[in-house]
Amino acid sequence: MRLLAAVDFGATHGSVVATAEALGEALGLEPFLLHVIPDPYFQGLAHHFPDLKEPIQALLAQVEARVGAALRARGLKAQVLRGLPAFVVGGEATRAKLVVLGQVGEAPLERLARGGMARYLLHRGEVPVLLVPPHRPLLRPARIAVGVDEGDAALAAARLAQIFGERLGAEVVGLHLVSGEGGCCYPTYLDPKGLGLAQVLERAEAFLSERLGLKVQAFKGEEALDLLEAAKRLGVDLLVLGSKAKSTWRHRLGQMVEAALRHGELPLLVVPEAACW
Prior knowledge:
Elements: E1 2-6, H1 13-27, E2 30-37, H2 40-48, H3 53-72, E3 77-82, H4 85-93, E4 96-102, H5 108-114, H6 116-124, E5 129-132, E6 143-147, H7 152-168, E7 171-178, H8 197-212, E8 216-220, H9 225-233, E9 238-243, H10 255-263, E10 268-272
Parallel strand pairs: 1-2, 1-4, 2-3, 4-5, 6-7, 6-9, 7-8, 9-10
Antiparallel strand pairs: 5-10
Helix pairs in contact: 4-6
């Protein structure tokens, strides 16, 4: 199977390619670079202005050749396709075990222009998606954190985090957020009225450690951002979260994933609930 890295020669290009090279070897996957030329716009121009059709086709062919040569110069397999980027990458992703994308910045316009592909793939929920920031490629992580709870999405995320940990030689720790009584992150298997906070955290850690087969640290927090802060304090190199994909309407990917997409600074691996490795 292959590792699909979608590249666009933007700010995250180098980070995505470096990550694909490093992880491909460690995970036993073949790195494959994909660049999509968004040609529907140009095809529309050629339709309305027939005199532009020939020069546009010539230019697109030239761009395709130059881009392909530049990508293959890294010694990796690469392909240049035309079409709507999100749809093309989504189609190619079905033949991959892992997709690597660049994580865009905080600017609203940047997210609007470049963030659609990541969300499209995440909402499809077909393959794990790794998002890497522009200047933080995932090369040799020392510590991997996975957000966990009692749900199936967290179970899938924990399993893949452990595989990454074993093959990359990294420590894996589970992070579990506990809110106050009646909060969205209070464990359903504990009685908030009969236990103090220390007991809740201790029992949550024991329950989830046994269920998931990894060390879990539970801590109190009221917001999804508290999980990101905990990962930052621990010096984590990669954060892994399970995705509920289409299972809810308000937070279709889960609140933690949504928060990490908006505010996260770490490489983020989003694992669909039904992912199989």
